[in-house]
Amino acid sequence: QVQLVESGGGSVQAGGSLRLSCATSGYNINRYCVGWIRHAPGKEREGVASIDMFGSTTYADSVKGRFTISKDNAKNTLSLQMNSLKPEDTAMYYCAADFQACGVGWLTLFRYWGQGTQVTVSS
Predict the structure, then answer these.
(1) By three-state DSSP, how is residue 107 classified?
(2) Are 79 and 69 in contact (CB under 8 A)?
(3) Side by side, which strands form the sheet with 77-82?
(4) Cβ within 8 Å of residue 61, ≥6 positions away
C-alpha cells in the first residue's frame, strides 16, 4: 500500500524559507513520478513541482526560481525547498505519487496523496 506523509510546514514571514519533506512507503520512489500539489482556500488545486524517475523536474511558473524539488531514492523521501516565500504561497501542500505521465500538469490527477502540511506566509 502506497503511503505518503508530509512534514515541515509552518508559518513564516514573506521572504523566508521552509523545507517540506515527504516520507513514502509501499513503493519504489525511483520508479514513480512524484511531486507537490498545493491547495489554497477558494482556489483550484495547483501542481507545484514534479520529479520523474530520471530526475527531470518541472515547476509551476509561479514558483520557478524559488522552489526546488529533490528526492532521495535510497531513503524513499521527497523534499521541497521553498525560498523567497510570498503570501500567495499560503496553502495546504500535499505530496503525490503515481506511475504515469509526469509533470506539474498531471499531478492533480495522481492516485496517491499524503494528508498535507500547512504553509502560511505572512506579509
Answers:
(1) helix
(2) yes
(3) 3-7, 18-25, 77-82, 67-72
(4) none
What is the C-alpha to C-alpha distance for residues 116 and 105, in angstroms, rounded to an integer?
19
Question: Quick one: which H or E segment has residue 34?
Answer: strand 33-39
**Contact residues for 104 (Cβ-Cβ < 8 A; gap 6+):** 35, 47, 48, 49, 50, 58, 59, 60
Residues 84, 86: Cα–Cα separation, whole Å: 7
Q: How far is CA 38 from the centre of its chain?
A: 7
What is the per-residue pLDDT across 27-83, written as a single tens digit (0 to 9) for each?
A: 888 888 999 999 999 999 999 999 999 999 999 999 999 999 999 999 999 999 999
Using the 8-state DSSP alphabet, how is residue 30 labeled?
G
CA distance 40 to 75: 30
pLDDT tens readout for residues 75-100: 999 999 999 999 999 999 999 999 88
